[in-house]
Amino acid sequence: MNEDDDLGALCAGAGRNLAEAERPVLERHGLSMWQYVVLSALAPGAAPSQLVLAQQIRYDKTRLIALLDGLEAAGLVAREPGPADRRARVVRLTQEGIRRHAAVRDAIREVEERKLAGLPPETRRLLRSALAHLANAD
Amino acid sequence: MNEDDDLGALCAGAGRNLAEAERPVLERHGLSMWQYVVLSALAPGAAPSQLVLAQQIRYDKTRLIALLDGLEAAGLVAREPGPADRRARVVRLTQEGIRRHAAVRDAIREVEERKLAGLPPETRRLLRSALAHLANAD
DNA sequence: TATTGTTATACTCTATAACTATA
DNA sequence: TATAGTTATAGAGTATAACAATA
Q1: Full-prediction pTM beyond 0.85?
Q2: On chain C, which bases lie within 7 A of the protein's CB atoms?
């Protein structure tokens, strides 16, 4: 992978390399990539409806159901009737979910740290900032 | 998408944003994402066997066949018996393939340019360099 | 015997359309 | 009538296994 390739190809290459390194870490903690994405979205303490959650993580609302079933059965998230709208079900992390997410997140960060080895702190900061810019740009 | 998210999430977000913006461009030129990847891999003038090409672009060798069938039918690539090993078939761009790839690449670069608007040249250079580092790091 | 290209098959992931209960 | 969640079904994408030609 060369730095004069398309930017899309570079992002895909970097993302794939990271994902491949992180998959065994997630497996060791008994989570799929998307399950981890759900835990991360809820980690700030949010309690969104399933529909809002699906939109936030850009995941299909119908597939989210089975994902949440698994996380609920594992005791990591809880679903409650929405306070305002009883059609909606509100999702939040359990205490165990909070602990589990923190543990996995630390392990993930270790992997990322290893992949970033050789890049100075200022470059890392700029990389994160530029990626966030790209992710939100229109 | 926030810049203190996981690096993997940031790469995925940036990659998805770019891919979504580039898809209509590719469609307008009658190419799928993977077909464009193949053209890009061959653009430097290389003439690899199908197996080597599949490994280079990290694509399944069995799926590559249908992909090449389409590109060959469109007159963009040519398959010839390998000079050294007659089992292998060597793939290369046709003249039309070279032209088509250059046209699509220019259009893709325009999209990327728009997405990068607001980032100074030095930041862009650093971004490309850091992404290439991440894509190749172990 | 091992490998390249190929085909056929099975499997997984994803998207679409209908059903229920609330609004 | 419309919307949140759910379910079932169909479709695309991907991986696995077997075959023919050549090494």
Answers
A1: yes
A2: 3-8, 14-17, 21-23
